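Researcher: Structure prediction, please.
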Amino acid sequence: MTLTFFAELSDILDRVSTLIEPIYIVGDINIHLNRPDDPDTVKFNDILAATGLTCRVTSQTHDHGRTLDVVATREDLPSPPVAVVDVGLSDHRLLRWTTSMAAKTCIRRQSQWSTSVC
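Model: Predicted structure follows.
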């Protein structure tokens, strides 16, 4: 990982962490989260913590016993149980979880300028 990656990740998470909506960071980040003393793991976890996020994956996600894939959510939300499933198609595992998501309802007001309020 590069310093640019961590700087950009921190910048993006600083911006979106102020939103009311739930935030999900998911996917293969190629950081060895199973190594708590690894400098990249420390940086990644510090960035998550600084923005109120936490990693919800607690087991290995790769053939070589590594945790390289992440599902991170806001700390103030209920922790979704994350199932790590070997589907036999990759050296990475499938991460499966459920969450409750609802779309916002917009109110359309007709006026000469046509306004929507969500």
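Model: The chain has a mean pLDDT of 85.
Researcher: Thanks, that helps.
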